[in-house]
# Entry
Amino acid sequence: MTDLTNLTLAEARDRLAKKDISSAELTEAFIRAIEAANANLNAYVLTTPDVARAQAKASDERRAKGTVGALEGLPLGIKDLFCTKGVRTTACSRILDDFKPTYESTVTANLWSAGAVMLGKLNNDEFAMGSSNETSAFGPVTSPWRRRGSNAQLVPGGSSGGSSAAVAANLCLAATATDTGGSIRQPAALTGTVGIKPTYGRCSRWGIVAFASSLDQAGPIARTVRDAAIMLKAMASHDPKDSTSVDAPVPDYEAAIGRSVKGLRVGVPKEYRVDGMAKEIEDLWAEGIRWLKAAGATIHEISLPHTKYALPAYYIVAPAEASSNLARYDGVRYGLRVPGKDLVDTYEQTRAQGFGKETRRRVMIGTYVLSAGYYDAYYLKAQKVRTLIKRDFDEAWNSVDVVLTPTTPSPAFAFGEKSGDPIAMYLEDIFTVTVNMAGLPGLSVPAGLSSQGTPLGLQLIGKPFDEETLFRTAQVIEDAAGRFAPPERWWA
Amino acid sequence: MHVDEATVRRIARLARIKIADSEVAGLEKELSGILTWVEQLNEVDVAGVEPMTRVVDVTLKQRKDEVTDGQIADDVVRNAPLTEDHFFVVPKVVE
# Structure
């Protein structure tokens, strides 16, 4: 029998529909794969085999009766930022301790009502703050990928590093993830998987642990473009509980796949040719341009003049919002409490011990830029720059339909290589963060391998709520580039 | 922007994060590094530019002013480290 964990989500869906396999069998295959692999990869911070088996059984019963949801019986991994009722949710921070939500996030509730099965909670950088998954209170995730001829442990990207590693190592069919500055697309690029951050407002943020509310969006990481399309359709919805969620019908994204890109106008922003960009990244980008041209698209150089200011503006806006959002962790209402000599001391000790180093750093930066006398110079200024970044894109949409860029400035790096220097780590998001600042949809699709044999991704940026164009264009790239899986299953 | 030791301690206090004396020098360097790096925004002319308040141009919806939940005190205190009769318990704050 073939290994069921090798199936794509779409293939598994079709095999289930034909009653070739049951959800119970499929789920069991993933539970065994996780048991064998997780000690090596640390992708899951909590496995929920009992929940999974019960959901799979219920799914098989529903199928027998002819009631079938869009994700009926399909086992998924859930980033530990999504609140799951009665199941420990920590954002991979010590400060949430043994927090068991008494409610379910809207996105995961949508998945369960579509019939999906939960395998467990996936590792991430603490509060989604990081680009390597090294800031997690549960320790780092190891990428299933290795450099050719080397055993050095590589990062799976971040913050959704558990999601990207689990998808790449076949420890779930697909995973939920979140993206505030690149946390879906960068890990997808570094692991040879597909990740999409939809337009701000497409998915409800209700029940997702908040990092920076004006930038946070949920989206999927999956093994193929089609799988990502199926997942996003199920995750997205209008939700009265999130006033920023958009009341517009969710298109059938899968139907966009296979549509031609003939005549599609693809923009290539000159400002993304940054100094010191690796030659292999430049070559990959050129290859992507050739593939789209060959499929009938037209290529246009465009200018997004404020690109270089997106990252510094982000590192004002995101920490400012984080410092406000994380004020709720006070050792009183939930999570960790470290008793102090009085109430203030209790707050201070709880937050000192509960937050990791990067979270403390960002809360302090955010506190500073919002403090009396500095608000205008930092936060207000950054929000004005943000208007200019969005205006650059608004302008570009007059002449192009989609924008093509590399996803990351370099391939996956090893543990510790960048964790000593915050700004070097922040630069990981240089190509992705503009998209969050402008609220646009962005998708990363695997496009090739580095000289060291590790994956590289291309990013497609679309107009607001035009995820369909991203899916159809990404499919053209996937068809040309092929799919990428780690060459050796060393972890199981 | 260089932040000095006193500023680091003031920010930590405002953020309600206790910092050890041994951490201050490191934080001074890191926070100064980041705040200096973001200064490149001073190159941008933002005269007459409105600050962004929302990325997607939609009007905030209003819902009916009615009670939609409540009576869930057990749920509210379920994850609290210390409670008594549906109250959160904290160290004494008034003498």
